[in-house]
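Purpose: get a first structural picture of the assembly so the mutagenesis plan has something to point at.
Setup: two entries, given in the order below. No constraints added.
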Amino acid sequence: MGILEVKDVNKRFGGLKALSEVNLSVAENTVHAIIGPNGAGKSTLLNCLVGKLIPDTGSVLFDGQSVLGRKPFEINQMGISRVFQTPEIFGDLTVMENMMIPLFARRDGAYRLHAFRSVESEGELRSRAEAMLEDVKMLDKRHMHSASMSRGDKRRLEMAMCLVQDPRLLLLDEPTAGMARADTNNTIDLLKEIKEKRDITMAIIEHDMHVVFSLADRITVLAQGTPLVEDSPENIKGHPKVREAYLGEAA
Amino acid sequence: MFGLGKKDTTVFVVVIILALCAPFILNPFPGNSSLAQFNAGYPDLMQRFVIFGIFAIGFNLLFGLTGYLSFGHAAFLGAGSYAAVWMFKLLSMNVIPAILLSMIVAGLFAVVIGYVSLRRSGIYFSILTLAFAQMSYNLAYSVLTPITNGETGLQITLDDPRILGSSATADGGIPVTNLFGLEMRHFTTVDIGAWSFNFSVGYYLCAAIMILAFYVAVRIFRSPFGMMLRAIKSNQQRLYYTGLNARPYTLAVFVISGMYAGLAGGLLASMDPLAGPERMQWTASGEVVLMTILGGAGTLIGPVLGAGFIKYFENIFSKINDGVLHSWFAFLPDGLENFIVTLVHPFVGKGWHLTLGLMFMLVVIFLPGGLVEGGQRIARALRRGKSEDNGAANKASHEPAE
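Result (structure tokens, whole complex):
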């Protein structure tokens, strides 16, 4: 059984059937990509995994436990981190502070009132934050105001913030959307490096075929709210149904 | 020092010096000069400076860190005042139990109001807090009269029980508030040349508490808790997806902020043991917002400066009447004198609000960071001027330090 099991999930928005009978199994330590044309229900599915939306029927199990009805912060505490389509970071804070917050969340849980300890005195957490920044080659930017960085740097920072929590499942929502080719390639390299270095499961929603085929171990193709096929990248490339529903449409 | 960083220690020491030397700093003009009316070194006024400083420091913890703009903070100030006066009526005239109770009552108030109001953010939060404060004001005015004594306000009387103290003094007067026998209204006047400086017990108690309150605020600013609060202001979505629940954090800071307001209310009552509903009115809530923004929201020292600035205007500018203006412009020919006085008249005396309003507009437009930003700009300009004077060598030695 996979680390993430989605079973018979349905979600309607009024008259629109966004997801119907979605079944998905993400195996541990693999990169699983979910692709599909616009409006296929990729984002709806992702939002059902992180607690932003609750499916009408069906179940979502993470490591054998249901995530349904839990709040986003509870789901994160279970070990699922999420990277957003546009980088979501704490823009008013420095890079280092951005890194400290996920570390505090991991150590102290969803809430702890440390009103009299200084952030400066948290030596152990600081060195972990610095090590992570070193890994994503951002250590020299640690005192920077994070809102003033480039989009590529914000993306790296957001990933570092997720990774420093040692998540068991990393969800990426179009991590290269709107990026220049060079930035896209950097992101691919970064993700490949992460994959090699750590035991981590990733689920990626992506438009860019180049990204998908260079990273994914498994691919699920979603069309009109239903999974069309699930297979290895090699087989997906030549699959007639996929060509018809997705690649054909793009051409 | 004191577990603070180097920069914070400097700010903290500056605040201590300002607070302790206020009787000198606020009395720069000799008593017999025409500028003496700009002196603010009276015990009453100095007490107000520091008490409203405490109020603004507490408000800034909420507004400056999380960005939640509470428009009903005066409710906590008022609740604190009532609690303190009740303590004077029932227990004793010692200020310590009164101040403690005022903080507890305001804290409980804040738990209830915060629990409901913090379900919403932005303008809805502001409106909810405003609604609660106006409700409190109207209740204090009408149906809660047995507790608040309505319009007249709550006062201490000769037939209050005061179980740990005495209902009346030996000569039949109403006892005064004290700290273990040290009377709050007691003060010593020291005459040095043409100057006379007032050292009041009440002021120094307030100043000591303000210094403590400021220290606690600095610690909160630099703590993981403070960082979380800034993260809430910056991006709540990211916070939730990082495994943190914002609600307990915002409620905690709302309660702390409310307790600061309660402390200020308790001190106001300790200096002058009466409490009226007007302390809860929305104008009082608006005033602390003005103080914080004028001084610099989110900065450490800004709220204290803003509070001092507004209270100075309220008490000093409002005293300049037409008589004073005529004496200032007496050297001009009569027609011109009358013309100038007519011109200046709307801005002083009862019109001080107009001057304050204009100042506030100017600060918000040109110095969005408040008076603190003004100070920083001046400091930067001075530093630049200096390094240009001293030549390039000096400049080079300066830069690595920054």
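The mean pLDDT of chain A is 89.
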